[in-house]
Specification:
Elements: H1 7-12, H2 14-25, H3 28-44, H4 54-72
Helix pairs in contact: 2-3, 2-4, 3-4
Length: about 70
């Protein structure tokens, strides 16, 4: 099991992540939920390539979380 990404790395991208979520969701409550779910996923199952940039991976996780939410509705 890969080790978790450093929490500081996730927080460095927090503002970017929040803006990205807002663009995807168009709803501030939904965006906050997406950010939380994305960070939780990053903590539970971090990317395999620790040397790769984190933002593209976080964006993919967030898109997938949104797809699952829409599919569940």
């Amino acid at each position: 099991m890969p080790t978790a990404i450093p929490i500081t790395a996730a927080f460095e991208d927090m503002r970017w992540l929040q803006r990205f979520a807002q663009r995807l969701a168009n709803d501030s409550d939904e965006a906050q939920d997406l950010v939380q779910e994305t960070l939780l996923e990053a903590w539970r199952d971090p990317p395999a390539d620790r040397e790769a940039p984190l933002r593209p991976w976080l964006a993919g996780v967030m898109r997938n979380r949104l797809r699952m939410r829409v599919r569940g509705q």
